Structure formats: structure tokens, C-alpha cells
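Input record (one chain):
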Amino acid sequence: MGDGEIQEGQIWEAAIFAANNNLDNLCAFIDYNKLQLTSKVEDVFGKCNLLSVWTDLGWQCLEIDGHDFEEIDMAVKFKSGKPKVIIAHTIKGKGVSFMENKIEWHSKKISEEEFEKAMLELR
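The corresponding structure, as predicted from the sequence alone:
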């Protein structure tokens, strides 16, 4: 789920259902890059401690560096007997200087020239 997407009611309905029914085989990810389509998540949703909210709902919560494959693997393998949410702290556009933390890249089409520059930076 995106951190902007979790502002939707059906996300919370499903989260409550999963906790109330002890769906311990459920693992959800939140891509927590703090940006959404047109603004920062905080500007729309306000300040929110995701860890506290999900824990209060009865989920096992893990916070990780969403760019670290070892942390992702460890979090996925973690067993707790509860539904699990992994809050993956990420940077939108990580590794590409002109894209990192830029709201417009949530939906902007990349040009051929920008693509070539990005590929050079990611090598």
C-alpha cells in the first residue's frame, strides 16, 4: 500500500477485519515515502504515527529501510501470530538525482533524455 493510499476507508476496514480474525498469514507492506500524487502525505493526512496506529489495531508492526533487501527479507520471514504490517521507509526516485523526493515524479512521464540520464546514475 502507498502511504497516501492508506487514507482510504477500505484499508482500515480490512485492517480491522484482519486483526479481529487473527489472520496471522497476512503480511502487508506500506511504501512510506511520505509523498502522494500532489503533495506531502502530512499536508493532507496530518501527522500520524503509523507504528502506533497499526499496533493499536492489533497488528505486528515492523519498520524497515525499504531499500535494504536484507531487512525486507528478515521482515517477511518474521513470525508473530498476528497479521503483520511492514512499514518500509523509502525515498521516491532513490538513486536518480533529479527524481529523489520530487512529488511530480509520482505521475510524470519520463523523457528519453531523462531516462538515459537516470540509467547512468543507477549504474
